[in-house]
Amino acid sequence: MGNPILVLQMGAQVFKWFGVLGFCTYVPKYVQEQFQQSPSAASVLSGTFPIACAMVASLGGGFLIKTFRPSARILTAVIFATELITALLFVSLMAFSCPQPPLTERGTLQSGRDLINTCNQNCSCATEVFHPICEGKTTYFSPCFAGCFTKGMNGTAQRGSYDNCNCVDAFDDDGLARRATDGFCKSDCPFLAFYIMLLCIAYGFSFSTKTAQILIPLRCVKKEDKAFTLGFAEGVLALFSFLPYPLVYGSLVDSTCVVWEESCGQQGNCWVYDMRTFNYSLHGTTFILLMVGVVLNFVVFLLSGRLRNLYGRDTRLANRDRTLEGGSDVHSSTRSSRGSIRKLTRNEIFHMVPTNDPEE
After folding, report:
1. Hey, which residues does 182 pair with through a beta bridge?
2. Tens of pLDDT along 182-224?
3. What distance in Å separates the CA atoms of residue 206 and residue 17, rounded to the nearest whole number?
4. Alpha carbon 207 to its chain's center
5. Do 205 and 90 touch, CB atoms closer than 8 A?
6. TM segments (predicted)?
7. Engineering a disulfide at 164: which of 149, 160, 281, 299 sits with its beta carbon 3.0 to 4.6 angstroms away?
């Protein structure tokens, strides 16, 4: 506690990585459910591309620090501004969502019991297997919950069809027979590309200050304490961020589930999420955690006047040395030549005195 900058910086890192890592872990599931993507496609879109942006941003941030060598005041101000922008980017992702397609004809699904209706109450349906089928704009949990008795014989190989479904009106408004087909109803949500682009930018801002956030703690302690400081900081992050974030975010995501797999009286995976709650829980929690880190970074900025010698040498002296580098080489060469001349003169006097000619 005797080093407030170090304590505040470590606290900011704990809250930041708690939120960022928790978000990174569950955003593929969000993309999969919100935009109806396959698990592999959701992992690539929300994992591979944003992480690549984060790597480039991290390298770029380190290069800029090496090139411009900003003062402690400027560096902490940049960290504060960047973290604030990062938090705003993450919360803005909340806006790129679409209404959840209704599951069952009643639209809003509160629990697995809501799947039971008068049209399927005698079918003894279970939630062990999730087999969605679509009719119109309504997705049913399975053919059983749609009250279907016959699988259509003229369905394509890709999408089977189901007839005689009690929960589906026999005819549409044009008098044509209605038929349910395999899979979710097609989503018209146009925001997937915008969401992934903004996600890449958010990851880039988040990782761009990684080098700076390592540099600041190292300049808060004595030279002999630097190795211990790095190890202690990693231990604090592991204890307060890396270990608890899966538990907290996992509980948040599970709380948004409305239909669970049930097998042999045991609860399994979640089949259906309340996407509105999922959206607010994932992005809102991350935003709150990041904003706590932003406040701590602002206090570090206010105390940045205590930091000295960020780069191991005084920046002004380093700049002066680079400016005078050429002239220093000339003077050094001249002094070396003079020293050689004086040395040669002494050698001639004491070691190279000509001897007498024996013939004289």
Report:
1. 133
2. 888 877 789 999 999 999 999 999 999 999 999 998 888 888 8
3. 9
4. 8
5. no
6. 44-65, 77-96, 191-207, 227-245, 282-303
7. 149
CB 15 within 8 A of CB 289: yes
Tokens 């930041």 locate to 16
Give the list of residues 6+ apart from residue 277 with CB closer than 8 angstroms, or none: 255, 256
CATH architecture type of domain 4-98+190-306: Up-down Bundle (1.20)
Residue 222, token pair as written in the block: 């004595």
Give the separation between CA 295 and CA 8, rounded to whole angstroms.
10
Closest CA to 63 of 213, 249, 212: 212
Angle at 96 between CA 90 and CA 101, to 5 degrees: 135
**DSSP secondary structure string, 5-27?**
HHHHHHHHHHHHHHHHHHHHHHH
| Whole-angstrom distance, CA of residue 54 vs CA of residue 56 | 6
Task: Domain ranges for the chain, please list them.
Answer: 4-98+190-306, 102-186, 315-346
Q: Are 54 and 86 in contact (CB under 8 A)?
A: no
